């Protein structure tokens, strides 16, 4: 699943996102986990701890 269109994104569970409450940083597969890691610096400072934790969990 390299391309994530709006329909597929809407079908994802909240647990598939780096920031579930905002449904930001979708991570349904390894490619998207790497993308979330690359865009980590753009996350709000207040959310970085949660995002980092979720990226590490998904990376396993």
Strand-helix topology:
Blueprint: H1 6-11, E1 17-19, E2 24-26, H2 30-38, H3 48-59
Antiparallel strand pairs: 1-2
Helix pairs in contact: 2-3
Characteristic key phrases:
mainly alpha, 2 strands, globular
3D architecture notes:
Helix content is 45%, strand content 10%. The chain contains three helices and two strands; from the N terminus they run H-E-E-H-H. A two-stranded antiparallel ribbon has the order 1-2. Helix 2 packs antiparallel against helix 3. The chain is globular, with a radius of gyration of 11 Å. The model has no long low-confidence stretch (mean pLDDT 94).
**Taking strands numbered 1, 2, ... along the chain, how are they ordered across the largest sheet?**
1-2
| Percent in helix | 40-55%
N-to-C CA distance: 18 Å
Alpha-beta classification: mainly alpha
Main beta sheet strand tally, sense and closure? 2 strands, antiparallel
Low-confidence sequence ranges: none
Output the radius of gyration.
11 Å
- Count of helix runs: 3
State which percent range the strand residues make up.
Answer: 5-15%
Quaternary status: single chain
What is the molecular shape?
Answer: globular
Number of domains: 1
How much is the average pLDDT?
94
Give the helices and strands as they follow along the chain: HEEHH
**Tally of extended strands?**
2
Short recap of the structure:
By secondary structure, this protein is mostly helical.
